[in-house]
Design goal:
This protein is mainly α and about 260 residues long. It has 13 helices and no strands. The longest helix has 21 residues.
């Protein structure tokens, strides 16, 4: 049976206008559009949802997927520590460890950055002991984290740990050692072009130098802190005070316990 010309013309007009022949409309089309806009659930999402076996199963199917997921989880934990959400960071690292264990059981997942995860676990423990005022234990865990960060060449972790270690040492009145740690932290942050963390480390350095009565170097450090804070688009002292206790902190006045 031949299709009447008028209907063929109408169909061609509709196709030209929409880019595709329209076969369905209404609710079906709406559902399809909504599905297309829904972001795909990542392996890291599954881990945080507690769907560990499913996440491990997916990771085993794709080379590098487990490493990518673990890196994402560790980055989330780093950000949570910076935001002073240590309980959330602990939950994230705990979930990451469960994921790693599940992947190991599959026997199919290789090259997972286990040491980088362990380093962050030690770092968080160090911060938690520092919050409790047990700076000797804090130092012990942070030095383990520092060694791991150097072994795996993880500059983000290393820079953060140097600053945390400076906090612990300064709290024990080991000011000369604290100055060295803060100075290393701020230099590494500069190398990473991380103005926020550089501002925090510089401010901490300024406080330690001030306690040592080195007023001119302290003023230089405070000025650098202000410049880095402005560069990070977070003007004013509050830009670093909110983060100083959060894994980049020192001050007894602001660090939460």
């Amino acid at each position: 049976m031949k299709i009447p010309y008028i209907w063929m013309a109408a169909a061609l007009t509709l196709f030209a206008a929409t880019g595709q022949p329209q076969t369905k409309s209404g609710a079906a089309a709406s559902k399809a559009k909504a599905a297309a806009k829904t972001p795909a659930v990542t392996i890291a999402d599954l881990v945080m949802q507690g769907k560990i076996p499913e996440a491990a199963k997916l990771a085993a199917k794709s080379p590098g997927a487990a490493e990518s997921a673990l890196n994402s989880l560790m980055s989330s934990a780093d950000a949570q520590i910076l935001a002073r959400k240590t309980a959330e960071a602990q939950a994230t690292l705990d979930a990451a460890q469960k994921f790693v264990d599940a992947c190991d059981k599959t026997g199919k997942v290789k090259d997972i950055p286990l040491d980088a995860l362990k380093g962050r676990q030690f770092r968080l423990q160090g911060i938690q002991f520092s919050d409790q005022g047990d700076y000797a234990k804090s130092e012990a865990f942070l030095r383990q984290a520092l060694q791991i960060s150097k072994n795996v060449k993880d500059p983000v972790l290393e820079a953060a740990v140097h600053n945390n270690l400076g906090y612990a040492l300064q709290s024990m009145d080991l000011l000369e050692e604290a100055v060295k740690e803060y100075d290393t932290a701020r230099q590494m942050a500069d190398d990473q072009k991380d103005n926020l963390r550089s501002g925090i480390a510089n401010f901490n350095l300024g406080e330690a130098l001030y306690q040592l009565k080195r007023l001119d170097p302290a003023m230089v450090a405070f000025k650098r802190a202000a410049e880095k804070s402005r560069a990070a688009s977070r003007p004013g002292r509050s830009s670093w005070r909110s983060g100083r206790a959060a894994g980049w902190s020192r001050s007894r006045r602001t660090a939460s316990r």
